[in-house]
Amino acid sequence: MRTGILDDVMKEYRRSKKKSPSWPDHPAAQAGIVVEEAGQLMQASLQWKYERAESNDDQASQRQKMRCKAIEVAASAIRFLENL
């Protein structure tokens, strides 16, 4: 596993808990948050596949967006798991 991934996930986890300390009390609502984040990751991934930027800098920005969205998915999944 690449260095820093888990650190970044835990940083996002702490940030999300601070920004939104309340978490739904129903598993379906909790899962909905995870699914919403996963949908944003899918959108960024589809943009990479079908709307890939031409410049290397813009491609790096697209890759960074996918990475950030994946980290948000992981952080929300952790919040889901801790509330089961």
General description of the model:
This protein has 84 residues and is mainly alpha-helical. It contains 3 helices and no strands. Helix 1 (5-19) packs across helix 3 (56-82). The relative contact order is 0.19.
Concise description?
The chain is an all-alpha fold and 84 residues long.
Q: Radius of gyration over alpha carbons?
A: 14 Å
Fraction in beta strands: under 5%
Number of strands: 0
Number of helices: 3
Biggest sheet statistics: none
Number of domains: 1
Bin the helical content. over 70%
From the spread of the alpha carbons, the general shape counts as elongated
List the helices and strands in order: HHH
Q: Given the helix and strand composition, which structural class is it? A: mainly alpha
Low-confidence stretches: none
Question: Which whole number gives the mean pLDDT?
Answer: 94
